[in-house]
Amino acid sequence: MPVLGSSAIPGARFVDPAVLARIGNLELVARSVVDGFINGLHRAPYFGASVDFAEHRGYVPGDDIRRVDWRLYARTDRYYVKEYEADSNSNFSVLLDVSKSMNYGSGGATKLEYASILAACLTYMVHRQRDRVGLVAFDSEIVEHVPSSAKHTDVVLHVLDRIKATRPGSLHAPLRKLAEHFGRRGVLVLISDLYEEPETVIDAVSPLRFRGNDLIVFHVLDRAELEFGFTDASSFEDVESGEQVPVVPDTFREQYVSLVRAHIDGLAARFSEARIDYAVLDTSQPLDHALFKYLTTRERLMRVR
Amino acid sequence: MAFLTPLFLAGLAALAIPVVIHLIQRERKQVVVFPSLMFVRRIPYRSVRRRHIRHWALLLVRLSALALIVTAFARPFVPGTTAGAGGAGAREVVILLDQSYSMGFGDRWDRARAAARDAVNALGPADRGTLVLFASRAEVSLRSTADRERLLAAIPASPPTAGATRYAPALQTAGSILADSPLPRREAILISDFQRAGWRGAEGGRLPDGAVLTPVVIGGDAERLNVAVSALSMSRSAFAGLERVTVTAGLLNRGTKPAASVAVRLEIDGRPAQTQQVSVEAGGSAPVSFAPITVSGNPVRGTVRLQDDALGRDNMWHFVASPAIPLRVLLVDRDGASGRASLYVARALSIGDDPRIDLVQKLAGSVADDDLRRASVVVLNDVPVTRSLADRLGRFVESGGGLFATLGPRATWPDPRESLLPVVPAAPVDRSRDDAVHVGALEYGHPVFELFRAPRSGDFSAVRFFAYRAVAAPDVERTSGSAPGQVLARFDTGAPALVERRAGRGRVLAWMSTLDLTWGDFPLKPVFLPFLHRAVRYLSAYTEPAPWLTVGQVVEPAPTHGNLEPGTWKPASAAGAGRVALTPSGRTLALDDEGADVLELEEQGFYEIRPQASDAGAVVVAANVDVNESDLSTIDANELAAAAMGRAAGATGPDAAPLPPTAEAQERAQRVWWYLLAAGLLLLCAESILAARLSRFS
Q1: Under an 8 A CB cutoff, do B39 and A238 touch?
Q2: A263 near B CB under 8 A
Q3: pLDDT tens for each residue of B413-453
Q4: Are strands B91-98 and B128-134 parallel, antiparallel or unpaired?
């Protein structure tokens, strides 16, 4: 598979999302991507919920020295290890935006294809961790729902494979409904292009955190949406509403890009306040690379806490 | 505003196309499907600029430049109004200055030149003038120029020419110049004494429609004496073996007062020889005869000259008195013929002196080459020609001699079908038992029989022939000028009587009967003598030397490699030598050796034509002015002008309605296209500068 570029991670190969999108077998794609960069790592990253602290116990030789609570040592001058309440078999659900705007792609892969591959990769990774996987596809309402289950990996991949973006969407209604649905704590991954005001997005996603779910938001955007690299004066048509607006890109680009940046910054600030992980994914960048960067960042932050 | 090539204006419509397309064009039909216009809508509308014209000034400059260039190609012009009184517009003026010798009367020539100068000075800044000098012919001295100085310099200072007046050529020349002119107004100014003798109706001398002819009459002179030598005759006589010429001049008093005791002088070779006094009544004429002068050897240059008067050119008459040169004829009889065989022929040829014929009689066997060399014509009187004689006669005719062959009962030729004769003679036809034959059809247009054309000038039908030679060759009758013969006369049986043939530079006449009483009574008839004389003159190509010619006539020097005699006006020259002509004024004109050039007599006086390298064989030609030109009676100038303009007299004058100029002429005069093109190019330069600056600014 064409490799977009090497990185500092030895053995890791990052694949052009356009190429991935042309591979018909989503499971194969997911497995290839995930195995591909995991093989290059010393150990597989853990993609799961954060584990709550249970108690301290005295260190005995053979314990993982990384579990030593060094703060307590500083206070007591004695070695204690932390013990957590690990919860195996946690729930993992992908909340996939399949509104019509997700069907856009200026390069080889549309946002939906990119999001589907991402969802498939995450599903596969979580499945390797023996967690329960599920999928919710929505536009203005719930389109598909695969309940979380350890046996639903194939189902999820199958749904992802055939899902289409055909209708206009909105975040508020479906996510509100989903917030009531997810009673059990788990990991919720929202993949959307978030074409709503930041306040509206926060209002829509915040309830998902209320039950203690770990919410991760992947903001998927096409390179054209980020940079507005158009040159010819044209009529721009909203893919969901059909509205047309004449645009002269030469004089329009700068303002548009600044608006997009402001929107992303606004979302980042609000998600940060709400302790929601947020990452912007450019569909022109290698998917595995973006995923790897996110996972390592997440893991580092988990250790800090 | 009108346009010479209006189709180019269609290009103006094309200028609007890009503007129209630009203005009506909505956003490009290209539609870009975008995920969301959430951010697009936030950008203020004014920033989403529709395509519209921003630099109106630049657009206007471009469109204006292209419009000017396209309009220039359409060749616009402002149509002129038809001129009314005092019509406007530049004039094409042709000044016709009469240069005939009648303008030398008194001070007419000075007044004519002054009038020509006035006409030149009256030309406007936009006018163009042409100076045409004319007498019997018209010559354009300076054509269609606005340079008045050049026109003034072209007015000749020398006296008028010796030519006579002819208005038709001058009017034709003016008409052609005016017809070619693009200027709106066309005018001809005729400066002349308007001699009646110079006008013979329009003669094709018409000006274009709308052109104006302004006559300037040079005349109204005070009464002056004007006696002219109007005629001259010369009669020849012989005295003591010398040829003498008596000159008689006719004088004509053109004035209104009698001329008393007018001195008339006869000059011989430039020296006064005799002087007489004569009085001539006003309007009358009088002859003056001088004592005979001896002419021998070389031609004599003579002049009859009157005392000076107001018109000097008609006061003299030049002439050349040449000694009469006899026509040498060789009469050949058959060997053994009696002296009476050619009695009638010899007698006939010995009579007369116009020309005088020197007759030499020889028998056929005794004809020497020298005899042939000296003779101009050979008459064979029923001679059986030997091969040797036939060859020599052939060379004689080929070199320009004439042969009159009488084909009687004894005449034979060695090879009749290849001989010099125009016919192949057959056996004699005997009509002695039948009715005699007569000469029926004559070619009266031929020089031999031209004399007998008029009624009662000779009756050939009275001549009876009892025998004649038939013609053996069936194709003898052909058109003249070719090797076979031309039948000039026929017997009433249809058989040829006289047949001509040209051979080389000479001619042959074959007479199919006898010139004695053997076969008819021809020698007894009155037509016998003139017939023989005409035949001999024709065969010798004899032409009388003209004692004088008229100015304007043309002399055609003929190539002379034969034996043409000096004293005729066809000059002889050594073979291969160039010839020159000396004019009365002393100029030397070269004449082509092959005779292609002609010499036009332009001056009054004596011309001498001679070989370039020697005086031998020189020919003198006297040239006199046309005597009619001394008649100064005039015609109505307005009548002439009306005839030339083709409209009623009186409707003349420089302010008459000018001819409306053609569209092409107006456009050419205005040249609006040039200014439009220049302005368009300047605007394009400005557009380039403006576009560059706006581009940098934006």
Answers
A1: no
A2: yes
A3: 887 666 788 888 889 999 888 888 999 889 999 999 988 88
A4: parallel
Q: ∠ CA A94-A100-A103 to the nearest 5 degrees?
A: 80
* Alpha helix positions (H), chain A: 17-22, 26-39, 70-76, 111-128, 153-162, 172-181, 198-205, 223-227, 249-273, 287-304
- Low-confidence stretches of chain A (pLDDT < 70) are 1-17, 19-28, 32-55, 83-89, 183-184, 294, 297-305
CA quadruple B525, B529, B532, B534: dihedral positive or negative? negative
- Tell me the per-residue pLDDT of B509-547, one tens digit each, with 9 for 90 and over: 999 999 999 899 999 999 999 999 999 999 998 877 788
Residue B52 to chain A, least CA–CA distance (Å) = 12
Q: Which of A243, A248, A255 sits opposite B37 (nearest CB)?
A: A243
Residue type, B88: A
**Nearest-CA residue of chain A relative to B36?**
A238
Q: Which of residues 37-56 of B touch A (CB under 8 A)?
A: 37-43, 47-51
Q: What pLDDT digit, counting tens, does each position of A244-269 carry? A: 888 877 777 888 999 999 999 999 99
Would the pTM of this model clear 0.80, i.e. be above it? no
Report CB contact under 8 Å: A104, B49. no
Is residue B593 pLDDT above 60, yes or no?
Answer: no
Which of A255, A258, A265, A267 is the best residue to mutate to test the B interface, defined by the most B CB atoms within 10 Å of its own CB? A255
Using a CB-CB cut-off of 8 Å, the residues of chain A touching B27 are 233-235, 246
DSSP annotation string for B109-146: HHHHHHHHHHHHHT--TT-EEEEEEESSSEEEEEEEES
Cis upstream peptide for B355 (omega within 30°): yes
Residue B41 per-residue DSSP state: G
Tokens of B670: 């205005």
The predicted pLDDT at position B484 comes to 62
Q: Which of A234, A253, A254 to mutate to test binding with chain B, by most B CBs within 10 Å of its CB?
A: A234
Contact by Cβ (8 Å): B512, B497: yes
| Segment (H or E) for B682 | helix B672-697
- Angle between helical axes of B56-73 and B672-697 (0-180°, round to 10): 160
- Calculate how close chain A gets to B22, using CA atoms only, in Å: 14
State the Cα–Cα distance between residues A51 and B658, nearest whole angstrom.
Answer: 119
Bridging pattern class, strands B91-98 and B138-145: unpaired
Instruction: Provide the ipTM.
Output: 0.76
Distance between CA atoms of residues A193 and A260, nearest Å = 12
Buried b (16+ CB within 10 A) or exposed e, B613-634: eeeebbbbbbbbbbbbbbbbeb
